[in-house]
Each structure stands twice: as C-alpha cells, then as structure tokens.
Design brief:
The protein is of the alpha+beta class. The chain has two domains: 89 residues, 434 Repressor (Amino-terminal Domain); 166 residues, Beta-Lactamase (2-Layer Sandwich), CATH 3.30.450.180. Helices cover 45% and strands 12% of the residues. A hairpin with a 6-residue loop joins β4 and β5. α2 crosses α4, α4 packs across α5 and α11 packs across α12. The two termini are 38 Å apart.
C-alpha cells in the first residue's frame, strides 16, 4: 500500500518549500531548457519569468510559492514545476512531500529485485522469506521459503507465482496450512484493501478476474467486500517432512522500490519450530 507522508506543518512547511524551489531554480541549466539564448546572466540558473514560461504556471503564482505564501498547490502544478526545474525522481518526490502531497511513483514499476535485497533474503536463513509487489506477485525467495512450500514455487508460469493464486489454487499450499480458511479470508481482505490503489493496474485486474472465475471460494469472499490491513501475526504450517511449525511474520517495505515488500517468517528462538525449520533447510543445529 503506498504511504502518503504527512504534510509539513504551517509556516515551517511553506518556508521549506520556498527555499527548495529557489535552490532548484538557481541550479537549473538554462541551456537545457530549450529557451532562446539570451545575454549574459548576472545570477546562475533560471529567472522566475522563465520558470513561469516553461511550466505554464503564472508568474504571480510561482512568486507566491517562492515567498512562502499560504496557497494550495495541485499535483499538476508540482509536476509542471518539476519538469521546468529539471528535477530528478528523488527531488520530485521531495517537492511533493514539502507541498503536502503524495509523491508520484515512476511510470514503470521495475519487477527487478535489487541485488542487495536478494542478498538480504539469503542472510535471513533459516527463516523463510520472499519479496512481493503490490499485486502479491512473488518475485524472489530464499532457500528456506522454497523448502517450506516445495514444488509450489517451482516451474510455474509467472502469473501463478502469486501469493493469492497459490493460496486459493494450489492444493499443496492448502495442505500445508491447517488454518487455510482463515488465511483465505485474510488474503481476500488484503486484496480488497489493495484494489483501491490498483484501479488502473491491468495485472491486478487480471489476477482478480482469474481467481473469481476459477475459485468459487474466492468469489464468495470477494463479493463480501471485507477490507483488512496487513498486520504482523502468527502462521502455522503442517509440513509433511518437518511436522508442525509455528512462525511469526512481518512485512517490510523496500525503500528504493516502494512497490516491493519483503515478507519474513521467523520462529521463537530456541523453540521446537526453530529446530524443525533448521532441519528442513539442512542447516547445522
């Protein structure tokens, strides 16, 4: 779920926004704007009049912003100013936050899991962990996760490598979960909550359409319109080789790619579940 940062409060927020706009205007390269070459400039960067011309924002309105006036700024104006001031992705997000707006995401969400996150997955052994996107597609996992789910993660079409698809459609996953009914209700509620953020996402629509058409159980839950948020909790597995395993699980955001998150399961230290997990992934006791 995308996070909307709280706006900067009062005068402090307006002063911070004004200072940032001035600093980016003074840094901007006039030669990269397409403006006609002018005479020698007494100060570096762009003039306010040029920012107004490039962005389509009135000179009076832009001047008020640099003066820290108490005015509301629309996302459209912020995007126009971002382009005029040649802001990169990080600077654009900062501008939006200073104005009390949710930062826009990149037009393309990369499905590549950063190398550092993949390496982190391995350091979590013997705790099962995996990376998902906002459609709950599973993009990476560690050896412990593979040991728990077994063949459910292997040799599948990409569209089936999805937490919800596996839960509702894969008999092997259902057999692992003695509390499968509760797990499915929880997952359907998570999907309902996420749906409000994915209205224009064709992958999310494809997933819901397929589950609705192929799983009567999911269809009933979906029509109930129950909405839940993710909460760290406890999960039980009944593994055919390791026996009963109890783990807590958390979901962590990937800061550099906020549409990704890492889900990690971990047993109580020193518990029988920890011993069984270690045995399952053949790690030393």
């Amino acid at each position: 779920m995308p996070a909307t940062p709280p706006p900067e409060s009062g005068d402090h927020g307006r002063r911070a926004l004004a200072a940032f706009l001035r600093s980016r205007r003074e840094r901007a390269d006039p030669d990269g704007t397409g403006l006609p070459a002018g005479g020698r400039r007494r100060t570096p960067g762009l003039r306010r009049e040029e920012v107004s011309l490039l962005s389509g924002v009135s000179l009076t309105w832009y001047t008020w912003l640099e003066q820290g006036r108490d005015i509301n700024v629309s996302p459209q104006i912020l995007l126009a100013l971002s382009r005029a001031l040649q802001l990169d992705e990080v600077e654009r997000a900062h501008l939006f936050r200073l104005a009390g707006r949710a930062a826009p995401e990149p037009a393309e969400r990369s499905l590549q899991v950063p190398d550092a996150v993949r390496a982190f997955l391995d350091t979590l052994m013997p705790n099962p962990a995996f990376v998902i996107d906002r459609c709950f597609d599973v993009l990476a996992w560690n050896r412990a996760q593979e040991a728990v789910l077994g063949a459910a993660l292997l040799d599948r079409p990409r569209r089936e490598l999805n937490s919800a698809w596996l839960l509702f459609r894969e008999p092997g996953v259902r057999a692992l979960m003695p509390e499968w009914e509760a797990e499915t209700e929880w997952m359907a509620g998570l999907l309902r909550q996420q749906a409000a953020y994915e209205l224009d996402n064709p992958r999310f629509a494809e997933l819901i359409d397929e589950l609705t058409a192929t799983s009567p159980h999911f269809a009933r839950l979906w029509e109930a319109h129950q909405v839940v948020e993710f909460r760290s909790s406890v999960r039980h597995y009944r593994h055919p080789d390791a026996g009963d395993i109890e783990v807590s699980f958390v979901r962590l955001a990937v800061q550099e790619a906020p549409w990704l998150s890492l889900v990690c399961h971990f047993p109580e230290p020193g518990s029988e579940s920890e011993r069984r997990l270690r045995g399952l992934v053949t790690l030393p006791q």
